[in-house]
Amino acid sequence: MAETTFHGERHSATSIEAESSSLEASVEDMVTQGGDSSHMSFQLTSHRLNGKKYLEWAQSVKLAIDGSGKLGHMTGETIKPEVGDPKMNAWRSDNSLVIAWLINSMDTVIGKSYIFLPTARDVWEAVRETYSYVENASQIFELKIKLWQAKQDKREVTAYYNEMVSLWQELDQCYHDECDCPADSVKTRKGEENEKAYLFLAGLNRDFDEFRSPILGKNPLPSIRETLSEIRREESRGKVMLKPYLNLELKPVVDASALATVKNEDDKKKRPWCDHCKKYWHTRETCWKIHGKPPNTKKKEVDNRCFRSQHGEAFQTTYFDQGQQPSPETSPFTREQLELLQKLLQSPQF
Question: Are 91 and 78 in contact, with CB atoms under 8 Å apart?
Fold first, then answer.
């Protein structure tokens, strides 16, 4: 008798498992084949429920089913007709279709748990209770941390703003509470807008420090979109004004350097050069190391010294003793370069 009961229980379990597999297969067949061509594709979304990222999955599924006009079966707005009502067949067909869509958007292991639920609303609520509340607190904490740590860095203001908006939208999906009082609802939304403006301004680069105070001083505080608009205007104005300013700062330096370089090159070209002894102020044809010193060398050396002395003193008298030193604005040379030139003129080797 006990053995018969055991075999009966095993047969019953086997039958239930077979029915479950058969039902799952029939759902998968319906999903893959599609049936009526008027229905949307059974591939609702690229996001599949795998136990993680519930908020992304729920939002993408909700948008897809809402586009088919059957969101009421998930939310409960589409009421089940009474038995014998002519609308019952259409309701049951749509309900089964939405269940198939939901099951098909889940991993197989997860979808098996919801196959036997009678309505699409039951499936939707069961999934929400199982996965949304488990991750809700940790997901909110993670999103808050990302918002607090968000910085503009090397990005443009628009790219930084878009990152913040994406995080705020994810955070909004974590809250399901709805305010019944319209006045409280407006007050709550204004508080959220202010918090967004604070976080956005706090993450901007130091370049915008002078523009934060005027925005924060306004009453009421501008919305996050108005704040972005003002910051973007300042960003564009700064880019326009910075380029000519840099050009004006660099141009005199470049011109003076180029002039000094050209002058040095011209001086080298004018000075005679001996390719034998590698010295300036004479050529191979008059080089003493090749041809020897001429008889009247001493007299020329005395004349040269006199020439250098006279011209050196004249240079000194003209530019230094009389206080007529070229100013930095009119001369391509610095004061140090002029002093060095004076020393060279007075040097015996000159």
Answer: yes
Nearest Cα to 278, choosing from 270, 289, 265? Answer: 289
Structure confidence by residue, pLDDT tens digits, 8-41: 444 444 444 444 444 444 444 444 444 443 444 5
Contact indicator for 200, 173 with CB cutoff of 8 Å? no
Token digits of residue 175: 């809250």
Other CB atoms within 10 A of residue 165 CB: 14
Task: Identify whether the C-beta of residue 40 lies closer than 8 Å to the C-beta of residue 67.
Answer: yes
Residue 311's pLDDT is 47
pLDDT over 90 at 264, yes or no: no
Contact criterion met (CB below 8 Å) for 212 and 227: no
Where is pLDDT greater, at 186 or 244?
A: 186
Q: What is the predicted pLDDT for the residue at 26?
A: 46
Find where tokens 């326009």 sit: 240
Of 125, 152, 145, 129, residue with least CA distance to 207: 152
* Overall average pLDDT of the 281-292 stretch: 79
Give the E-state strand segments of the chain in sequence order: 273-274, 279-280
Q: How far is CA 137 from the centre of its chain?
A: 27
- The 3-state DSSP class for residue 84 equals coil
- The C-alpha R_g of the chain, in whole angstroms, comes to 44
**Closest C-alpha among 207, 233, 206, 237 to residue 222:** 233
β-pairing, 273-274 vs 279-280, is: antiparallel
What count of other Cβ atoms lies within 10 Å of the Cβ of residue 27?
17
* Cis, peptide link before residue 220, omega less than 30° from 0: yes
27, two tokens: 């759902």
Better-predicted residue by pLDDT, 246 or 82: 82
Distance CA 264, CA 252 (A): 18
Is 323 exposed, middle or buried, given 0-12, 13-18 or 19+ CB atoms closer than 10 A? exposed
Q: H helices of 287-334, where?
A: 288-291, 297-316
HSE toward the beta carbon, residue 290, CA cutoff 13 A: 11
Q: Is 138 strand, coil or helix?
A: helix
Q: Which of 228, 230, 207, 234 is nearest to 159 (CA)?
A: 228
